[in-house]
Amino acid sequence: MQFVKKDILDMASLSVEEISLILDTADRMKEISERPVKKVPTLRGRTIVLFFYEASTRTRTSFDIAAKRLSADSISISASTSSMVKGETLIDTARNIEAMNADVIVMRHSSSGAPHMLAKRLKASVINAGDGTHAHPSQALLDMMTVRENKGTLRDLRIAIIGDISHSRVARSDIAGFTKMGADVVLAGPPTMIPRGIETLGVSVVHNIDNAIHGADVIMMLRIQKERQKGFLFSTEREYARVFGLSKERLRKHAKDDVLIMHPGPVNRGVEISPDVADGPYSVILDQVTNGVAVRMALLYLVSGGVRNASSD
């Protein structure tokens, strides 16, 4: 199939076929990062602008590396060093970037829907690198790539997502992606961190972590997003770790022998996950980071109009 989308904004707008194409393309891109010389001329002459209104380590760095490995020119801009601090609007900033003939704008913003607004107004491709609590499509895609690598499929798997669901754009994108690809998703966390009516997205909800991880093929732990919370939604971090933290003992008692442990990062060790689990034999957290580069290479390649048949030589 051909990939015809100009923008990558969320998982809901991607079809099963498009997701499969992205993952297949990422599989091929991953080999580039394993070469002695980690660079191909595929996007030579293209300009990728990384516009991050919020702080980021993994997403920003992996998009930058992805662009460079495809030989594109990559430029980073943050809100604090742009003319937005002088009162320039987001739209005017983006239009000025486009006027410099940027081909792709990778954007992270604290306001949900900001990348969608720009995508409607710009000719350049827009890739959503996380907007508010709404969506983080590239994270969901790298999560799916990691699971598919280890399990061979996404269909009929039980995916447990545990933690601060209400404030997590990763959770929303993972829910949309995994359910679309035929997985069964169960959510767990404090009632104060589970949105009302989220079951309408095709997931089940439990408030006991032991019930959530029982029989799970994948356990995705999420951090508490204090920066997005407007009130106290739990008592103490110690209490949260006791009730909802993933420990080695809890894993031993309730999880499957071949379970995958995942986390989108940053990890708050000793809160949502213990260090011996984060670094343990079931953890594929660093594999997620590795696959993040491959997925973002695939996204830049596909929206830039590369040869879009991932199965061709």
Concise summary:
Its EC number is 2.1.3.2. The protein is 37% helix and 14% strand.
What keywords describe this structure?
313 residues; alpha/beta; five-stranded parallel beta sheet; four-stranded parallel beta sheet; globular; disordered C terminus
Model description:
This protein is an alpha/beta fold. Helix content is 37%, strand content 14%. The chain has 11 helices and 9 strands. It has helices spanning 16-30, 58-69, 90-99, 114-121, 137-151, 169-180, 209-213, 237-244, 248-254, 275-278, 285-303; strands spanning 47-52, 73-78, 104-109, 125-131, 158-162, 184-188, 204-206, 218-221, 260-262. It has a 5-stranded parallel β-sheet. It has a 4-stranded parallel β-sheet with strand order 2-1-3-4, with helices on both faces. The protein is globular. It starts with 15 loop residues before the first helix and ends in a 10-residue tail after the last helix. The model is unreliable at 307-313 (pLDDT under 50).
List the helices and strands and how they pair.
Layout: H1 16-30, E1 47-52, H2 58-69, E2 73-78, H3 90-99, E3 104-109, H4 114-121, E4 125-131, H5 137-151, E5 158-162, H6 169-180, E6 184-188, E7 204-206, H7 209-213, E8 218-221, H8 237-244, H9 248-254, E9 260-262, H10 275-278, H11 285-303
Parallel strand pairs: 1-2, 1-3, 3-4, 5-6, 5-8, 6-7, 8-9
What is the strand content?
5-15%
Work out the helix count.
11
Mean pLDDT: 93
Alpha carbon gap, first and last residue: 14 Å
Helix content: 25-40%
Number of strands: 9
Biggest sheet, in brief? 5 strands, parallel
Unreliable runs: 307-313
Radius of gyration: 19 Å
Q: What's the SSE pattern?
A: HEHEHEHEHEHEEHEHHEHH
Helix and strand content put the structural class at alpha/beta
Placed side by side, the strands forming the largest sheet appear as 7-6-5-8-9
Shape: globular
